[in-house]
Amino acid sequence: MNDSTYTGPLFIGWDVGGWNCDRNASSRDALVVLDRERNILGQPWRGNLRQSINEATNTQEWIQALLKYCQVEVAGSPESVILAIDTPLGFSQAFRSLISGQGAAGSIEASADNPYLFRHTERILFQRGLRPLSPVKDMIGSQATKGMHTLARFAPTNPSAGVWTNSSNLTAFEAYPAACKPSSLVREMLQPYRHMPATNQIDTWETKGFGYGIDHEDKRDALLCALVAWLFQFQPDALFQPDAETPQGEGWIFVPCDALTAG
Length: 263
Fold this sequence. Notes:
alpha/beta; single chain; 7-stranded mixed beta sheet; DUF429 domain-containing protein; 8 helices
């Protein structure tokens, strides 16, 4: 679908590749754009967003660049863009204090509880049955800094934990496609994009079963992010929300509630 008259909210999923991911055949930036009915607009895209991040002079130019990559045309600036980003969008408070010379954390024991390696949101997800990655130890620092750099340029306002905006029409937050695997809600939402029926969790994630241009895992993950963006707007109670102890500067991973075990 490519509708130049579409003026409703847009839901964009961004699976983030490293700064120089054009040299990496297996992992690159990928984008999927959905409308309010969860139709894929234009075509899913895969490549490197570095040039668009460098060249855009403001938020609206960057949004238009994303839409152009996906062959989506809209009349003027979109009224609302919800962008779900698959990369850590912050470092832990303890890690930032350590590298800035503001002091050390207490005793360090289990890896999953290490406040240098994992943020508050990740430590909670470990307790709820998931295994999130660390931007410090899991070789995703390039992706993380790319995401954070992009927010600093185009969505610099952080009104609440885990949410960034440009104080206008762009809202961005962190999603985690791997955390969607146990979610029956997301599994059901994925079915319309498949041309091969999936009867179990493993089949649902097989890339070869998808249509609509979802021909690579990066694009599948971007689709998952876009679906989480849709949930963020229309079914926020379906997503695990920040608690009162979440440091605002660390960010938060918004994952489906039904993907979690009891805490």
